[in-house]
Amino acid sequence: MRATAVYRALLHCYPAAFRHEYGNQMLLMFADQLGEARRTGRRLEQAALWVRAAVDALTIAPKEHGHVILRDLRYALRTMAAAPSFTTVAILSLALGIGANTAIFTLWNDVLHSPLPGVHKPEQLVMLSNPDDAGMWTGRWDGRTDGPRSWLTYGEFEQLRDHAEGFSSLMASESSLSTWQVRFEGSAWEEVRGRLVSGGFFQVLGVSPAIGRVFTTAEDRAETSTRSLVTTTGSDASAAVPTCWARSLPCAKLP
Amino acid sequence: MTDSNPDSLLPLPTAVFHILIALADRDRHGYSIMQDVVARTGGKVQLSAGTLYSSIRRMLEQGVIEELAESPDPSSTDERRRYYRLTRFGRRVAAAEVDRLNSLVQQARATGLVRGV
């Protein structure tokens, strides 16, 4: 009885359809073979039967699973070929669903999960906002000097930068890109996109320029109007980068 | 039945050919097929249950054999047994396999690989 139960358990290696069709016959045959071996007292024969049953489970059962999968695929293809309209709608629906999900996931992953590209140890970066407020994206600065706000003033930033010990370093940045009028050496005024940032901006991010150097925290504290060219648009401005990097440039912010 | 041309099933797996031979003279159930193969080969070939019923499943799909609705043996008391019979197409397949093997043997003898009887 125990041998039958073990063999019945082995049959679960086979696909359900095959097991339902031939499981009882296989069990019957195995019981016959085992009974014959026991009657004749051939222990080696009994052992060989179990070995063959185990080898079957490892070799025949996977082939039967493959056969079932192929049969199902053939049936599915025949069904699809018989109803091309339905098939087209189904495939298009699946394509749209998968495409939309992929796009949303990609966006969600890039915005919320992917580390900032090029930034050294992005997981250690934090953004500070007004601790009296609910969160950094709530509130809106509309030029008022009273009422709710999210952003820190430059004075508060300086206090934190010089006295807060919980951070290895701090930097401040304008919250949006602005358009500036800049004049490179000897050239005409042209528009570039840029933002005001504090000294140490690049050091905190852990990025280094491809050419030249970036301005330092010491330069930021000096009473100068040094502006560092961070990004430029337009071929003329790009060509001028090697001559004006980290140099004082006359500039004016456009409204 | 996958194809009415017997040659499309050749060469036959060894187990399938043994089953065809076992069913040539009479209808049999699985255990009887296994016993016949053991007796004919002197125990050199022993079909396991998995090999036997996997082959039977494939042969039924190919139309080489068919399952009988009732036991061909009136004296049989075990209704659990399922009996199988060689179909006409199955006999053609077996004949085609024999021809193929004969041709191979003749080629082996013609080239002197083995001595003819």
List keywords for this structure.
heterodimer, A: 255 residues, mainly alpha, three-stranded antiparallel β-sheet, 3 strands, 52% helix, elongated, B: 117 residues
Considering DSSP H and I runs of 4 or more, what fraction of the residues of chain B is helical?
40-55%
Mean pLDDT of chain B: 91
Q: Spatial order of the strands in the main sheet of chain A? A: 2-1-3
Biggest beta sheet summary of chain A: 3 strands, antiparallel
Number of helices of chain B: 4
* Largest interface chains and counts: A-B, 22 and 17 residues
The ordered string of helix (H) and strand (E) elements of chain A is HHHHHEEHHHE
> Main beta sheet of chain B, described?
3 strands, antiparallel
What does this structure look like?
The complex is a heterodimer of chains A (about 260) and B (about 120). Chain A is mainly alpha-helical. Chain A has helices at about 1-10, 15-40, 45-80, 85-115, 155-165, 200-205, 215-220, 235-245, and strands spanning about 180-185, 190-195, 250-255. In chain A, helix 1 (about 1-10) packs antiparallel against helix 2. Chain A is elongated. Chain B is mainly alpha-helical and about 120 residues long. Chain B has helices at about 15-20, 30-40, 50-60, 90-110; strands at about 30, 65, 85. A 3-stranded antiparallel beta sheet of chain B has the order 1-3-2. In chain B, helix 1 (about 15-20) packs across helix 2 (about 30-40). The longest helix of chain B has 23 residues, at about 90-110. Chain B is globular and about 55 Å long. At the A-B interface, helix 2 and helix 3 of A face helix 2 and helix 3 of B.
